[in-house]
Structures are given as structure tokens and as C-alpha cells.
What does this fold into?
Amino acid sequence: MKSQKKGRHLQLKRRKGVAARLARQNSMSFNQGFDGGYLKGFQTGYDSGYDDGYNQAHGRGYGEGYQDGLKATDTYQLGLAAGKDEGVYEAAESWVEKLLPPNTMLADVPMEKLIEAGLGQYKDSLYSVTPPAQIGEQLLQAVQSATPYGLIRLGDGELLTMAQETAMSDSEIRRLGFFLPYAGVEIPDRGARDLLLAGIRKADAIGIPLSRKRAFQPLFLQVLRAHGMDYRSLPLTHSLVNYELYRQGYINRLLEAGRVLVVGNLAHDVAEKLRSNGNRVSGAVHPVRGMADVPRVLADVEKHSFDFALVSAGIAAVPIVSHIRSVMGKVAIDFGHMADRYTKGGEGF
It folds into this structure.
């Protein structure tokens, strides 16, 4: 009897010991993640200023932190994210401290107000891109008059692909663009880069990200400068123009105006739904297996007679739209993830 009680006592003691160790490890994991993230965000921002601190934390943190975080514990990921978020904020405040005169303080003026006041000094430098409604009117006129027109959109995948040998090293592109293989681009791929650059030069409208995160607008401008292009000479609009064209009714008006060809992995499903709504669908070209599959896709596209095309093909949408516009003399729209929303029922036409 005594031995049984003693055994139960030892088991209970061991369980308590294990629980205590797990609690300590959990706490250490969170603290390590928080401290590491905080220091990384703070030091980077302090040395390079607000922009670099923001870009490092969100650009590198998204690519590097996301992949590494998948291998870590949940508490480590939470700690790292919290540390980086606070590090970014502290980096901005540290930059303000460096600019204040000696022996002074700026009380009751939050960092957001300082940024707002600073932006006010640059109103004359603001550059307006074409509103989606104006793009919609141009597309309608092009379909009705059978005039060539190409709308492309640039996201981080396209920009990272174009950054090869200019704005970034291949290793850095692979790190930030860890998703590129799934988008159909294996770095290095200079041919893909050149096709995207050619698409920019031929497009009638170019959707660009207005986000100032590292892999978006800053990288877009860096790529343009590297290839001798000026953003002010390009027909720019917002990269989310595809959603706005739907929301403002232009997709429906285009469908009423002409015959549509649907291109992309979801082309069959989109085409079936369009037909069920009474729209004139010329055909569906699918699948699109990345940039290497573009020649086959274009050969299939050329078999169809249509007035405009909705292309949802990721990075490959740019050369497909460019070919339909410049070689076939048709209207083509980079439709993007609107195809996903339509087939899943999130957006109805």
C-alpha cells in the first residue's frame, strides 16, 4: 500500500516537473521571438530611417519570417510578429529623436501627426494615376470600335521577376519571392523578365501597386529606372482596377457589348457561369501552367473569334494580354483573382 502511494506521488511530481519545464520553454520561446523581432526591427529602422525599417520588417519579415516561422512554435511566431510590429513603430520614433534639437522634447505630438505634417510639404509632388472609371470608359470604347487595347497589372510577382540583374540579386529575389515557382517563374528566368518589360511598353493601361512596401511601389520605380523608363510617361492606374471595373459595373457593360474569351485555370467554370447568365462566350482556354506555357496558350487563343478577353493567369497574364492586344488587335484585360471570386460565388456578374 505504501509503495503504491509512493509511486503515485512520484508520478505526480514528474508531471508537475514536465509542466513546469514546458511553461519555461514556452515563455522563453515567446521572449526570444519578441526580443529578436524587436531588436531586428528597431536596429534596422534606427540605422536606415522609417522607410527602411518599415520595408525590412514587412518585406523581409514577410518572406524570411514567414518561411522560418513555419518551422517554429506558435509562441515563437507570435513573439516575433509582436516584436517586429513594435520595432517598426519604435524605429520611426527614433528617427524623430535624431532630428530634434539637443535638450528638447516634443510632447503630445504623435508620430502619425508628424508624418501627416511632413506629407503636406510635398503636395506638389503627388502624382495621380488614371481612375478605374476612366479605364472602364476606354475599354468600352475599344470594344465598341474594335480598337486594340491591353490592360495589365503588376504585383510583387511581376516586379520581382523584372528585378533580375538590375534591382536585386537572384538570391534576394528567391528569398522575397519564395512564391514565384507556384506563380510559374523559376529564378533565374531572363526570358520571363524581358516578356514582362515588353508588356509594359505595349500596354494601354498598367495597374500598379500604390503600397509603399518594399516589394511594391518602391521596387516598381527601381525597376523602371534600371530599364530607362519614366513612370510619368506610362498610362498608370491602380493594380486593383480589375475589382473596381466589376464594382462600378464596367464588366457587365463589356459583356453586353461583345463576345468574350476567357483564359486561365478557371476559364471553363467562368465561361459556364457567363453562358448561364446569357452572355456571349466565344470559348475558354485552360489551363495556363506558368510562363513556360505561354506559347501553347497563345496558339489556342488564336483559334477563337472574340471581341475581348478576360485573362486570369498570374504572371503569365502580362505576355498573354500583350499578344492579344498587339498581335491579334483585340481588347484584353488582366482579370486576376476576380475569376476566383466569381467561381466561388463571392462576386456575381
